[in-house]
Amino acid sequence: MERLTTLYIDKESHKFSAAHYTIFSASERERLHGHNYSVSARIVAPMGDNGFSADYNVYKGRIKQLCDELDEYMLLAGESLHQHIAEDGDYYRVRFAGDDMLFLRKDTLILPIRNATVEEFAHYLLGKLRTLSAGEDLREVEVCVASGPGQRGGALWTAD
Ligand SMILES: Nc1nc2c(c(=O)[nH]1)N=C([C@H](O)[C@H](O)COP(=O)(O)OP(=O)(O)OP(=O)(O)O)CN2
Q1: Which of 85, 109, 137, 148 is buried most, with the most CB atoms less than 10 Å from its CB?
Q2: What ipTM is given for this predicted complex?
Q3: How far apart are CA 78 and CA 110, in angstroms?
């Protein structure tokens, strides 16, 4: 029977600081604020004959790269049903519930997510990590994003 193993990657250095607001409904959102988000991962892979599965250093490097890509940005949910984002010179103009908010484009990332929540960040990062790991024999990958101690959301991929 094939033996599987689980790698847990939970490094203190896997973090990004970002500004966001959560949207609760068409008319309700949080005020703009920031978090020091931390990212962890769980990877299930086949165990090799020599007691080694997948090199966790490889995944550490990828997760760090993904965190660095989000660090010190304003993160906007590009697929929210409740806000409209338009380019306006050096700014993004975001219309939500009758309010217009302007964010410097160079400080802002529009992500393909429906809300700027930990669960959507986790889903986004899981997709990016899977792309970076294409062709590798992994059976399950879970990415968790925490907005602070004791509160996190995860996204899970399982091989068919
Ligand atoms: N399902 C989710 N719910 C909430 C999310 C989320 O990402 N997914 N995010 C938030 C807030 O953005 C964020 O947590 C701020 O909440 P708040 O409790 O006000 O402040 P802290 O994170 O600092 O937590 P403390 O317990 O107050 O330290 C809300 N919901």
Answers
A1: 85
A2: 0.91
A3: 5
Who lines ligand 1 at CB under 6 A? 22, 30, 117-119, 147-148, 151, 153
- 19 CA to centre of own chain: 13
CA of 117 to the centre of ligand 1 (A): 9
Distance from first CA to last CA of the chain, Å, rounded?
18
pTM to 2 decimals?
0.96
Do the Cβ atoms of 151 and 44 come closer than 8 Å? no
pLDDT of residue 129: 98
Whose Cα sits closest to atom 5 in ligand 1?
117
- Position 1 scores a pLDDT of 86
Mutate to test the pocket of ligand 1, among 80, 124, 147 (most ligand atoms within 8 A of CB): 147
Return the domain boundaries, the chain.
4-79+107-158
Atom of ligand 1 nearest to the CA of 30: 12
Q: Which atom of ligand 1 is nearest to the CA of 118?
A: 7
Tell me if 22 sits within 8 A of 29, measured CB to CB: yes
* Domain 4-79+107-158 fold: Tetrahydropterin Synthase; Chain A (3.30.479)
pLDDT, tens digit, for every residue of 77-119? 999 999 999 999 999 999 999 999 999 999 999 999 999 999 9
